[in-house]
Design brief:
The chain contains 1 helix and 28 strands. The chain is mainly beta. It is globular, with a radius of gyration of 18 Å.
Length: about 325
């Protein structure tokens, strides 16, 4: 649409929160205005965008391209790519250090997390973490990068200060995303991790470095099959206010909400087809869920626990973030 193309090249005003959605089967990122729950524009990136993070200073986005094996560096004032950093094959999810100096990129077709220096915009290191790394997260205290290995069925903790692996946590299954429940000072207390072929998630005691519990989602209808093979539960996130944990089910196209810290299920809400990822507004008023199988994003009121609307976006939306 002509209006969309025009908006896409205009810089965004500072301050307002937007929802940014990577359209993984295309070459674009959709921008949603949460005030109206409508698409306000999009911008082009390399093919099959996967992970997306903003720089702490708000000047850039870093976006991995699963098809072109690059990390796109996008200038947020113009929404244009200013550098395509070559990295390993099939880069997946990414994370950035609190000081914005390093971006960590999971290399799915290898066994490393690539480290990109944001001053030189070059890959400077590859950290071994086990086969098929998929997701990586920086802990709230800034001390660790936690990388999942699908092939190794584990999490590797990388020391941010040394950029070296320090220890591993075995999971007993193939990890998907992670939600981190921080303790005092921001150090992780618990991790919540969906596993392949599990309609639910496991609970990890971070200090003990082991799985201590397993939580199941409600039973799906008989004969239900997920859009993505072996992916029964996937997107998971802790609300910014720390009161609830949200988990998507691709098996029955829903989102379940659990209270924290006791993990009591509060509600299960229907959303679109194959809910893959989720994010929150910083004030914990809304949750946004990418529906990979129906090319839409569900906007959910987090107080009343009901879906407000479904917003059409690009092809196969997956990762999405809220950023100023």
């Amino acid at each position: 649409m002509k209006w969309l193309a025009l908006i896409a090249v205009l810089p965004l005003a500072a301050a307002p929160i937007r929802i940014y959605v990577t359209n993984s089967a295309g070459d674009s990122v959709t921008i949603i205005d949460p005030a109206s729950n409508r698409v306000m524009g999009e911008f082009r990136v390399s093919r099959n965008p996967h992970g997306i993070v903003p720089s702490p200073d708000g000047k850039r986005f870093y976006i991995s391209s699963e098809a072109e094996n690059v990390l796109d560096v996008v200038d947020r004032s113009s929404l244009r790519i200013i550098r395509r950093v070559p990295i390993g094959q099939r880069p997946n999810n990414i994370a950035i250090t609190p000081d914005g100096r390093r971006v960590y990129v999971c290399i799915r077709s290898g066994s490393t997390v690539d480290v990109v220096d944001t001053a030189s915009l070059e890959k400077v290191k590859s950290v071994p973490v086990g086969d098929a790394p998929h997701n990586v997260y920086c802990t709230a205290d800034g001390k660790w990068m936690l990388a999942t290995s699908m092939g190794g069925k584990k999490i590797t903790a990388i020391d941010v200060a040394t950029e070296s692996p320090e220890f591993e946590i075995p999971l007993g299954g193939i990890p998907r995303p992670i939600a981190i429940d921080p303790g005092p000072g921001g150090a992780p207390a618990r991790l919540f991790v969906p596993l392949s072929d599990l309609h639910g998630f496991v609970v990890v005691d971070f200090a003990a470095r082991r799985v201590v519990n397993r939580v199941l989602l409600p039973d799906a209808r008989a004969g239900a099959q997920p859009l993505i093979a072996h992916t029964l539960a996937h997107g998971i996130g802790r609300s910014p206010d720390g009161r609830t944990l949200w988990v998507t089910s691709l098996l029955d196209n829903s989102v379940s909400v659990f209270s924290l810290p006791d993990l009591k299920r509060l509600a299960t809400l229907p959303v679109g087809n194959a809910p893959d990822w989720l994010t929150f507004l910083p004030d914990s008023r809304r949750c946004y869920v990418s529906n990979a199988g129906s090319d839409s994003v569900s906007a959910i009121d987090m107080t009343s626990l009901h879906e407000l609307t479904r917003i059409p976006v690009g092809k196969m939306p997956k990762r999405l973030i809220a950023a100023e």
